[in-house]
Amino acid sequence: MTGRPTPALPTPAQTVGPFYGYALPVPGGPDLAPAGHPDTLTVHGHVYDGAGTPVPDALLEIWQPGPDGDRAGAPGSLRKDPVTGGHTGRDGVTFTGFGRVATDADGSWAIRTLPPAGAPYLSVCVFARGLLHHLFTRIYLPGPAADADPLLASLPADRRATLLAAGTGPRTLRFDVRLQGPEETVFLDFR
């Protein structure tokens, strides 16, 4: 022993991750809607970095009110079950109001949910490589409620477009997250 102190190793907040890749994704994470529900809406897209390259190791968390406007979510939908590794509230029958989805090797992601009542958007938290702090944004669903939303209406048209999902088929919407660049997604600052 030399008598010198051992240098401290960086903590996850001091290094570029991702550290969440093995622990945060859970079975059924992308499925907010009950299995086989007739009103299921698929929302999908990609996460891109500033150069337009897909980000293969991002994670998106989705929060939303239910079709009845309830914001409480399913009891246990955030509590991890130590036996199955899933969440105890994810029984395939109950709407959870919460989802977590990792991007694949091509930077793509998809969730299955129900249209929210009381808010024309899904709230999103983005975790990705190079981000020391996660980012918050919204996915606005097309329609009159989105057009009347005060936050969306306060943005210039080109910036507003970065928050609007686009229809790609029956009950299917696309929303891409751009972390930087001229088409960067509008991110919200919560303090």
Write the layout of secondary structure elements.
Layout: E1 41-48, E2 59-63, E3 98-102, E4 108-113, E5 121-127, E6 135-140, H1 144-147, H2 150-153, H3 157-160, E7 166-169, E8 172-174, E9 177-178
Parallel strand pairs: 1-8, 1-9
Antiparallel strand pairs: 1-4, 2-3, 2-5, 5-6, 7-8
Major pleated sheet = 5 strands, mixed
Strand residue percentage: 15-25%
First and last CA, distance:
47 Å
Enumerate the spans where pLDDT stays under 50 for 5 or more consecutive residues. none
Task: Let me know the number of strands.
Answer: 9
Mean pLDDT: 85
Radius of gyration: 18 Å
- Work out the oligomeric state of the chains in this entry: single chain
Structural class: mainly beta
DSSP helical segment count: 3
The level of helicity is: under 10%
Give a written overview of the molecule:
- Strand 7 (166-169) and strand 8 (172-174) form a beta hairpin.
- The protein has helices spanning 144-147, 150-153, 157-160, and strands at 41-48, 59-63, 98-102, 108-113, 121-127, 135-140, 166-169, 172-174, 177-178.
- The model has no long low-confidence stretch (mean pLDDT 85).
- Strands 1, 4, 7, 8 and 9 form a five-stranded mixed beta sheet that branches.
- It has three helices and nine strands, in the order ββββββαααβββ.
- The longest helix is centred in the C-terminal third of the chain and has 4 residues, at 144-147.
- The protein has 191 residues and is mainly β.
- Helices cover 6% and strands 24% of the residues.
